[in-house]
Design a protein that fits this description.
The chain has 399 residues and is an alpha/beta fold. The protein has helices spanning 7-13, 36-55, 76-89, 101-115, 145-158, 172-187, 206-212, 226-240, 255-261, 263-266, 282-291, 303-320, 325-336, 348-356; strands at 22-29, 64-71, 95-96, 119-121, 138-140, 163-169, 191-198, 219-223, 246-248, 270-275, 341-343, 361-365, 368-369, 382-387, 393-398. A 7-stranded mixed β-sheet has the order 7-6-8-9-10-14-15, sandwiched between helices.
């Protein structure tokens, strides 16, 4: 089932000015665009966190947390437009998002950093975000692809690949993870026979595939969004016989890959890494039980990260004691990192009481440890997804 948010619903969610007793936080997400199906569960995670907060005392003196949704379309320009809307029109005090790395880079550099508004992305993973001159305003609960690219390279090496061709879409996320992957695969002793950028949303990639297949690679490492170029590239590669085996990162993790390519063509031939949550973690289990109310899968990519980003911003507002962007930014590391009494998903009433008593809190997230480092980054935990005998994705955790 496709969980898409209509333009009319989006407009209704962000049409009214702030009311007394409300604290507005932007919810900037790629609700349309190449990964819309992946974004819907993330937004549901954000909304679940807001519901928990509002049902258990609200913010500060009982103010309602209102998430103002804006569509960044997984596109840099749209990210800037969405940022301008929530900051300059809706007057938000912080932002959850944006979804994709290009949209996040565009939004924070053009809008939120100059305006002094803190943001916490739940799914922007490009390594370039780490190095932003951000005045300590940009955070993320999604780990940098500096970790995922290395994990995928190690996985490829352990699978026996020694010669790979690489292609990546021309955007911040895919270019960033491809660079990390290539460096780590070559560092292990592997050979990259071709390394080619491609433009998304083309009808055919047969010419690019012909070039990529010339060096005798054993497989194709594909860094793309499934709805942008990824599915088309796999289809063209199989049609031409240029490649039969593929590996990819989480921009390709969607059931539509199986639906459009066919499980029989992918079983034993496709590996996709994904930033995941440890199912043995108590915080994840609490989140997963509550998330069932959305009707979506709590294991969906970055759904838990969306919950955590929203809960952290709320904790920072509570810790700051005011809906003041500068104070919220300063408070984010305080509520995310030790020392402090551990707070888990859903424990808003407990957190509120501790903060009111002047005690430190340390949020342990559904997505794992959300201890921010100096760059606003967090550690990573990953899975690899393959196609099982039933024609569905099967997940194995990388430890």
């Amino acid at each position: 089932m496709k969980h898409l948010i209509t333009a009319a619903a989006l407009a209704a969610l962000a049409a009214t000015p702030a009311m007394a007793g409300e604290i507005r936080v932007g919810s900037v997400a790629g609700v349309t665009g190449p990964i819309a199906e992946l974004v819907a569960p993330i937004v549901a995670g954000r909304n679940l966190a807001a519901a928990h907060i509002n049902a258990n005392g609200g913010l500060l003196d009982g103010d309602t947390l209102v998430l103002v949704l804006a569509d960044s379309q997984c596109d840099p320009k749209a990210g800037v437009d969405a940022g301008n809307k929530v900051v300059n029109v809706e007057q938000v005090v912080a932002i959850v998002g944006a979804s994709c790395s290009g949209a996040t880079n565009g939004m924070v550099q053009s809008v939120t950093i100059p305006a002094g508004i803190p943001s916490v992305s739940d799914s922007a993973t490009a390594p370039s975000i780490t190095d932003l001159d951000d005045n300590n305003l940009v955070f993320r609960t999604a780990p940098s692809d500096a970790y995922q690219g290395a994990a995928l390279a190690k996985l490829a090496w352990e699978a026996g690949y020694r010669k790979l061709a690489v292609t990546y879409a021309n955007d911040d996320y895919n270019a960033g993870i491809a660079e990390v992957f290539v460096a780590n695969f070559e560092g292990l002793g592997g050979k990259v026979t071709a390394n080619q950028v491609h433009e998304p949303n083309k009808a055919s990639y047969r010419a690019e595939i012909t070039t990529l297949s010339g060096g005798g690679a054993e497989a194709l490492a594909l860094f793309a969004y499934y709805g942008g170029s990824g599915i088309t590239i796999i289809r063209n590669a199989l049609e031409t016989g240029a490649f039969g085996k593929f590996m990819a990162a989480d921009g390709m993790f969607d059931v539509s890959v199986i639906e459009q390519i066919g499980a029989e063509n992918l079983r034993g031939n496709l590996m996709i890494t994904q930033s995941a949550s440890d199912p043995s973690n108590t915080s994840y289990q609490l989140f997963a039980e509550a998330y069932k109310s959305t009707g979506m899968d709590p294991g969906a990519p970055y759904a838990a990260h969306g919950y955590d980003a929203t809960f952290l911003i709320a904790l920072a507002i509570e810790q700051a004691g005011a809906a003041d962007p500068a104070l919220i930014a300063a408070a984010l590391p305080e509520v995310a990192n030790a020392p402090g009494e551990i707070i888990r998903p859903g424990e808003w009433e407990k957190a509120k009481a501790l903060i009111a008593a002047g005690k430190a809190v340390n949020y342990e997230g559904a997505s794992g440890s959300v201890d921010f480092d100096a760059a606003g980054d967090v550690p990573g935990f990953y899975s690899v997804n393959t196609i099982n005998a039933e024609g569905k994705f099967e997940m194995r955790f990388l430890r």
